[in-house]
Every structure is written in structure tokens, then in C-alpha cells.
Amino acid sequence: MRPVTQCSTVIREAELRQVLKRSGEATVFLVGNLRTALPALAGAILLPLAAFLSLLLVSLPWLPEAVRPMRALANTERIRSGRILGREIPVPYPPPRGTSFEQGVRLMRSPSTWRDAAWMAGHGFGGLVAAILAVSLWPSIVVALSMPLWWWAAPEGAPAAIITVDSWPKALTMPFVQAGLNGAVLWWGVPALARFQPRFAEMLLRPTRRTSLTERVERLSATRAEALEAHGAELRRIERDLHDGTQAQLVSVALRLGLADRRFDADPAAARALFLDARDGIEEALVQLRTVIRAIYPPILSDRGLPGALRTLTAGLPIPVEMDVADDARDVPAAVEAAAYFVVAEALTNIAKHSGATRAEVSVRRAEARLRIRVRDDGKGGADLTRGSGLAGIGRRVAALDGVTEIDSPDGEGTTLDVDLPCGS
Amino acid sequence: MRIVIAEDNVLLREGLVLLVTSDGHEVVAVAGTGPDVLPALMEHRPDVAVLDVRLPPGFRDEGLRAAIEARRALPGLPVLVLSQYVEETYAAELLAGGAGGIGYLLKDRVSRVDEFLDALERVAAGGTALDPEVVSQLMTARRDPLQALTPREREVLSLMAQGLDNATIATTLVITERSVSKHIGAVFLKLGLPPSDSGHRRVLAVLAYLNS
Lengths: 425, 212
Known about the structure:
The structure holds two protein chains of two kinds.
Chain A lengths: L1 H31 L1 H22 L7 H23 L14 H10 L1 H40 L9 E2 L1 E2 L3 H38 L3 H55 L4 H29 L2 H15 L7 E5 L8 H22 L4 E8 L2 E8 L11 H11 L4 E5 L6 E8 L3
Parallel strand pairs in A: 3-4
Antiparallel strand pairs in A: 1-2, 4-5, 5-7, 6-7
Helix pairs in contact in A: 1-5, 1-6, 2-3, 2-5, 3-5, 3-6, 5-6, 7-8, 9-10, 10-11
Chain B lengths: L1 E5 L3 H13 L3 E6 L2 H11 L3 E5 L9 H12 L5 E5 L4 H8 L6 E5 L6 H12 L3 E3 L1 H10 L1 H4 L4 H11 L4 H8 L3 H15 L8 H12 L1
Parallel strand pairs in B: 1-2, 1-3, 3-4, 4-5, 5-6
């Protein structure tokens, strides 16, 4: 019998140690939670004020500023809880658009703002309560278990374990009941709370199906409007170029030929001069026409496809360019082809003109339904999408196709331009 | 000269035929699509072929490919390639074979009838005719080392790269042939190129320098 008892004692000890370890870790976790819970609590206390202020239309433009710390906190929690859950919690925020007033309105209407706020309140209050509970349970068990030893010595007002302990029978039963209850909470309740916390965060902080769809639709209709606008501007520009340039030039040629015809018999020398003038005019018109055609759809793209066309771009540059274009970049729609060619041509021209770089790299990759372009140089950096007509032109052209332009250009450390264009399937 | 013309646009094709026949040449065959070009060249072995870059059925660069293929089959076959726009890569591909008898011009150049016919004859004789626009693209790319040249020397370099001989350069710039030789000597010295006689080899040396 003896070995069995020993054995069961060993098992019980091991179990107990494991339980203590589990509860201990859960307590440490819940205390660690305070790092986000306390700021969340502070935020939650300020929430009514923020809500009241955003009801006044005047303060709406400041809402994006006010929401920023909340989002930063929520993002920290997304990363932390995501790590514990072993799956990423996606960020539901769409990139800001429009004036600060429009951004404010959009934030008020966005479900993610309200869900963030709900999380902040829940996490702030709940996290604080859970942490206090977990921490105080440990000493309370010690206090309860030791109560039979000292209850009689307690001064004014007997100590309480569920009911007031004022007699030996009570003192020998109730403290153990109390310790057992506390132990049970510590054993099951605290680890459950620790497990619940990241799930709660995920539930409120991940994008809902509705938000992602709503925001996608909103973004698509906005970019579609921009695309239509850009397309309209493009048509007007082409019309103006042809109307004021080529067409006017041809009219003046026709006029000169008419005059030459009239003078031909009387003054052959003057007629000849007019013929030559007319020829110059036509040559000029051809040059203009080529420029217009190149802007609509560079002919080299029909000849060689995107990879071949991009390779010809390096020919005229004073610095070496490493061109890495995937072969499957060939089968993209013509509009995407033209935009990609324009982006790389413009970026390389910029590099040659302004960057002072000694070398550049271009990579074009197809990733499922997107075309990813990266142009990198080792020049002086400091490039800005909002300044310089070249980069702004790239941004506009990419946005018109619902693409994304990003530029990373720290001073003195070169420039990396990333463009991501959707291109069907 | 016996000439084969490949051009899909009927108006332009008739214009080209008119242009060369008015100068006493003979058009032995015309081709309207890419696949027709090579058989016509193989059959007629013309003194010079005039090819449009973009031809049916693909409307890509069939004419250019046909030219390169034809010169692989018939080395040294003089080919003048015409295009609505010029691309220095195409020029490099045409010249890559090394042999002479290559022309690459904008279609616009047909309006200068005499210059165009000169270029045609130069190509037929194994020379080079490169469009001024291609040359200026090349010279822009090599702007820095060309800073060392005087403006006149740059003009001479440009005309030399287009494939013109000293006499023509002299008439174009209205200077004597002797001063042309002097400028050319200075250009070669400043760019560190080995001195070269006139003709296709000289053009290749200059283009190789500009393209490097």
C-alpha cells in the first residue's frame, strides 16, 4: 500500500504545482494586461467628452486627431492578442481620404470607430477589475487559511469569512470554505479570464465582414470617380493637343499649298518657297502627332509587350539600371501596361535628373491579380509624392487604376518607389 | 537599283513606289504582310529592301524581325527600315550583325526626297543611314563625356553617326572637307577612339562608343 500512497502523493504534488503554475501565469498575464488596460481606461473615461464634442459639427475636423491614439492603442492590442492567439488580427481602417472634415464624418460613420471605443471601455474596466481580482486572491487565501490561528486576537469587530467569525465552530469551518472558494476562482476563473481577454479583443477589433465590404465599396466608388475624372482630363488633353497642335498645323499647310498653287505660274520661285514651308509644317505636325500617340499608348508596348518595352527604357540613361521584369508581366490589360510603362519611365527620368544616383534597380512582378513595381536608387533621397510634378503624375496615374503608390525616401539613403496596380485575374 | 518594298498602308506604298521609280529605280516586288517579306527577298535578292517596322498580321515589329532574319540568310543584304517612331533599341538590334548596309529612318524623312534617296543609295552601297533622332537620343544619354567637344565637333559627330561621309558632312555644314577631317580627328582624339577611315566601320565605332 505504501508505494501507492507515495505515488498518489507525488501525483497530487505535481498536479498542485501545475495548477499553481497555471494560475500564477494567468495572474501575471492579467497584470501585464494593465499596460493596455490602463490607457484604455483613461480613454474610456474621456469617451463621453469626445462623443459630446463630435456631436458639435465644429469639432469634427479634430476627430481624426482624437481617434489616432485610440487606434494606436487598438493596434498594439491587435498585435499582442494576435500573437497569443497565433493568428493575425487584421487592421480594419481604410486609408484616410478627403479634407479633415470629411475624414471626421467618415470616422463617425465607420463601425470600426465604435467597435474600437467599445473595446476600449470593456478592456479598460474589465482589465482593471480582472487584474485586481487575480492579484488579491492569492493573499486572501493565506489570510483565510490562517484565520483559525488569530481570529480571537483580532481587535474590534471579528474578521469575516463569508460570515462574521465570532466563535470556534465558525472559525474552524468558514475560513476553509472561503479559502476553497477563492482557490476555485483562482484555479478556474483566473485562467479563464486570461484566455477570454485576447478573444474579446479579437471579437471587437477585427474587421467585420460588413465593415470590410462597406469600406471596400466606398473606396472603389471613390477611386472609380477619380478614374473617370482622370480619364475625362486625359480625353480633353488629347483633344486639345490634336485640335490646337496637329489640326491647326495641317490647316496652315493646306493654306500654303493653296497659295503656292495660285502663284505657281506667275512666280514659280515664291511658289517653291511656299511648298517648302508646307513641307516643314507637315514635318512639325508629324512630330507633334508622335508625342500625342506616345502619351496615349507608347507604340513600343504593342511592338514588344511590357517586358520588352521596359528594357528599352534603360538604353537612354546615363546610369546603369538593373531591370528585372517577370515574363508573366506580359499578360496585363493595356491600361495597366501603359501605366506601368509610364511609372517606370517617369521614375527613371526623375532618378537621372534629380537623384544624383550612381545606379538603379527596377523590378516588376505579378502577384496574383496585381502588378507590383519597385524602382530603387542609391541617390540623395528626400523625394516626396506631393512635391515634384513627376512623382505627383505617377500617383495620379496609379490612383486612376485603383492602385497604390508608396515612396520611401529618407535623406541621403536613396529612394524606393513601390507601385501596386490591380490587373484583373 | 532593284528594290523590294514592304509596307501595308496602300497610300504610303504607292508613294514609296512613285518616289523610287521617279529616280529611275525598279521595284521588283511589294509585300503587304510580315510573312510575305522573307520569301520576296529570297526570290528577288534586291539591291536594297525598304521595310516598314510594323506589318500585319500582328502589327508589332514583324518588319524589323524580317529584316534581321533576311540578313542572317543573306549576309550583307542592304535593308532600309522605316518606322512611324524611332527606338534606339531597334537601331542597336539592326546594327548588331556588324555588316554594313543598314538604314533606320523615320517615315517622315521621305518628305526630303533628295536626302531620302541619298540615304537609300548609301545603304545599297553598304553604308549606314541612321535617323538624326536616334543619334540625338544616343547623344543625350552620353551627355557627360560629350561635354568635352566643341559644339561644331558635336555636330560633326552627330552627322558621322548618321552615316554621312566627309563630303556630305562638309556640304551640310557648309565647311571644307579639310576642316571636317580636322574636326573628326579632334573628336576621335578627345573620345579616345582609335582613328578610323571613313565608311561603315567608322560609324560602328562611333555608335559603339555612344551606346556603351
